[in-house]
């Protein structure tokens, strides 16, 4: 049953994307929830990045919306996840370099570019991945940056509300 449902979702996504590419004057009909998460994503990116995927996924019995955005220029790919139950943000993750773009998550959280600058000030190097998520153990929204520096892989965690470094792990 799970594979059948997943196949139907993948097929629906392919059909929606095909419809978008075939005739740009026709917008496929989206559910109200899909429109909501697309609008939230658009507000956070403040750009005209290309949405590549809008789908639902079920992991550990928790459903979430997944929106992937190809950021303009050399921005790379950013994934946004929202809880299906209330369309609230679950996670934002920078998947591929370059990481030169802006994401404004709202909700009194610092912008990605400020978090990036603070992290690279804590550990000088090259970012290979980043994400923003609510950390249950620390009970706060955190930015997590994976940084390569001096041949070592570092994780820098920041309090997303105030930009303070929570921890640095090697």
Describe the structure.
The chain has 170 residues and is of the alpha+beta class. It has one domain (35-169): Nuclear Transport Factor 2, Chain: A (Roll), CATH 3.10.450.40. It has helices at 2-22, 32-45, 112-122; strands at 50-59, 62-71, 76-83, 89-94, 126-135, 140-149, 152-159, 165-169. The chain has an eight-stranded antiparallel sheet. Strand 3 and strand 4 form a beta hairpin. The longest helix has 21 residues, at 2-22.
Question: What keywords describe this structure?
Answer:
170 residues; alpha+beta; Nuclear Transport Factor 2, Chain: A; 8-stranded antiparallel beta sheet; globular; disordered N terminus
Mean of pLDDT:
80
Using the 3D structure, state the CATH architecture: Roll
Low-confidence stretches: 1-28
- Backbone CA Rg: 17 Å
- The coarse silhouette is globular
Number of helices: 3
Strand content: 35-45%
Number of strands: 8
CATH topology: Nuclear Transport Factor 2, Chain: A
